[in-house]
Amino acid sequence: MTPTIELCALEVHLGGRKILHGLEGTAHSRAIGLLGPNGAGKSTLINTLLGFHPPSSGTARVLGLDIRAASSELRSLVGYMPENDAFIARTTGIRFVRYMAEISGLPPGLALERAHEAFVYVGLGEARYRKLGTYSLGMKQLAKLAQAIVHGPRLLILDEPTNGLDPPGRKRLIALIREIRQAGDTHLLLSSHLLHDVEQACDEVLILRDGRIAGIINLEEERKANRRFLEMEVMGSGAGFSAGLGALGCECVTFGASRLKVVLPPGIEIHDVYRLAAQQNVRIRRLNYRRDSLEDIFLNAMGQAGVSNGRL
Amino acid sequence: MAVYKRHYEPYAGPLTKRWSRPLVLTRYAVRELFRSRFFTGFFILSLVPVLGFAGYIFIANNSFLHTLLSLRARSATFPVESQFFAIFLEVQTSLAFLLTCWAAPTLVSGDLTNGALPLFLSRPLNRAEYVAGKFAVLGVLLSFMTWIPALLLLLLETGLGPGRWLIPHLWLIGPILWCSILWIVLLSLIALAASAWVKWRIIAMASIFGVFLIPAGFGQVLNATMRTNWGSLLDISRMFQEILWAGFHSSYQGGEGAIPRPATWAGLAVVCLICLRLLHARLRAFEVVRG
What we know:
The complex is a heterodimer.
Chain A: E1 5-14, E2 17-27, E3 31-35, H1 42-49, E4 57-62, E5 65-66, H2 71-75, E6 78-81, H3 93-103, H4 108-122, H5 137-149, E7 155-159, H6 167-182, E8 187-191, H7 195-201, E9 204-209, E10 212-218, H8 219-225, E11 228-235, H9 238-248, E12 251-255, E13 259-264, H10 270-279, E14 283-290, H11 294-308
Parallel strand pairs in A: 3-8, 3-9, 6-7, 7-8
Antiparallel strand pairs in A: 1-2, 1-4, 4-5, 9-10, 11-13, 11-14, 12-13
Helix pairs in contact in A: 3-4, 3-5, 4-5
Chain B: H1 21-34, H2 37-45, H3 48-60, H4 63-68, H5 74-77, H6 82-103, H7 105-113, H8 117-121, H9 127-145, H10 147-160, H11 166-169, H12 173-197, H13 201-226, H14 236-247, H15 261-282
Helix pairs in contact in B: 1-9, 3-10, 6-12, 7-12, 9-10, 9-12, 10-12, 12-13, 12-14, 12-15, 14-15
């Protein structure tokens, strides 16, 4: 099966700085989430895949097409919803989406038909003859989605699609994205800060930190693994306790001095944790069992990346 | 994705040819311009001089009118020679300049103001094609004001004038075409660069005027103080007019002392290159923060 995204030592310099540091990895799933803190390189990666930034070295393949050699061909398969405002204020919604469809190669008549369908589909049917400049933030987001799907792309790239939406709007948009993903052969690359959105819409996550890949994780497999998870709040030397847990073979991420998230490996039981706490004179004030959520996976990857980079 | 079904379906229909995509930009922009009554009115008015020049050719070749008005020989009273076409192009290029000042400012800025450019460039359309599509808007409009009517006048004179008029005047097609194209390229690039860098229409219009007037004034001061002609290299319209009149084998009457022809061409080429550089710097799908 052709991987959705294949990164081959991809390196990007912008404004005299190295933004992406030799990214290497493959994501096969239909829906891929792109996660990372601010400045991790998510938008740069998306822009590079779209051909906006030339790679300094290495390359990437999207749906089997090389971003250097087949940039134009690739862009004909892509629908892009950018993070920031992207519209022409003085045109009506329907005209704007039709315009985008025609640039994507649809003949004028079919472009108009698809523009109407896309607008009704995203729930803006009533507002399609209004000028885009008069739309609310949520409506603009939906109009951006309409222009991204109007030409029926094979890969839909969504950069922070739920930005600025109220909770019901967010829920509706995520439902639409899930539906699009399930229809036909459409692949999805979703960049978001909202882990819940990514968790709901994606099968696989690519986590970036400081322009490096912190992890490519298949959520389904991760969930199936059903690893044992503890959330703890302690009083005493959290750092020493964390090191002791590490010595027991636990994966451990700390938040501040007192909060820890711990994955128990096979063979280690909870009474071993209590014993260690007693030995180190640490008081456990709160302890919860939890299954892995995307937040845990993300934080874990962030922690590992921190260790691998030589700092926490 | 039928409306009544309200579910998503990928598109599997036919696609237009790749080369025709930039023309979508042209079509939409031209339609947008002609939505303005002022623009439509101005465009129609700018064709009125063509009727005047056509009337002149008609009168020049109407022997009945000549007899009626007891006029001398046709060629002496109403010459239709190279100067006639040079004057026609001078009038029409001035009108083309005014039309560009009105039409061009929103061509690119409209797409940049609210960040629509990444949507264009994320499709199978690169920056050069984007510029070509926008350039074609002015290219088409200004062609209808310059070389197309000039060639029609040439045809009219061929039809109405004395037999074999065309053969000794066939060379006029050359300067008509290349002078018009030079002006269209120059004006379009300056206007597109102004539209890319200036967001507000009025200021963009003023900046297009400014590009022509401010360096010209500075050049005049330079000429006066340094007792030279090289300051005229800052006067874009003068450089063009010198080339225009030279193209029609006449000397430019608008100023003292001619600039060497290669320097004039080089000056205009530099203007075009600066405009292309400005467009290249501005038309990006992203912002790069340096540091």
